[in-house]
Known about the structure:
The protein is an alpha+beta fold. The chain has 9 helices and 4 strands, in the order αααβααβαβαβαα. It has a 4-stranded antiparallel sheet, with helices on both faces. The N and C termini lie far apart (42 Å). The mean pLDDT is 94.
Amino acid sequence: MTLINDLKTAQTDAPILEVLAGRWSPRSFTNDPIDEGKLAAALEAARWSPSAGNSQPWRFIVARRGSEAFEKIAATLMGFNKAWAPKASVLLVAVAQVADGEGKPLPTALYDLGQSMAHLSVQAHHDGLHVHQMTGFERDRLAAAFDLPENLMPFSVSAIGTVGTPDDLDEVLAERERQPRTRKPLPELLLVNE
């Protein structure tokens, strides 16, 4: 496992925190049950992330492998996510509260939800868990499965657990798992840098 983790460590142009450089999104997970203390810490990190006006528009559906909720989420996965994600210890749905109780839109809800998921994923990685976020799922079907009101929008599903070995994946996914992480060069991302 050390070899794959070394391969996935970001080769940065400027020094960044080790936990950020080492964070990556695997598709192979072990069959280990989730460490409840580490999961609680990740959720607590999400809870304490910043939000516009302290609105805290994030909500989560946390489902452990073997539960009815896990099966409901897994049934909505699309494409190759169906092949690998149900092997994770937990499937977590990140839900944005997109309107308040009076129906007034919360325009920063998705941004704030993204921040909470970033906090969750960094804390999880720090504690030895891995998080793979995905949007390849049937949003309406998932919302119906959990009877979510219109102001709660499921935005992503994350597989969470202990990283496994690429050998447990089919050939195509295993090859993707073994590839080094890449990003666009920083100058390509900077619209203005005066």
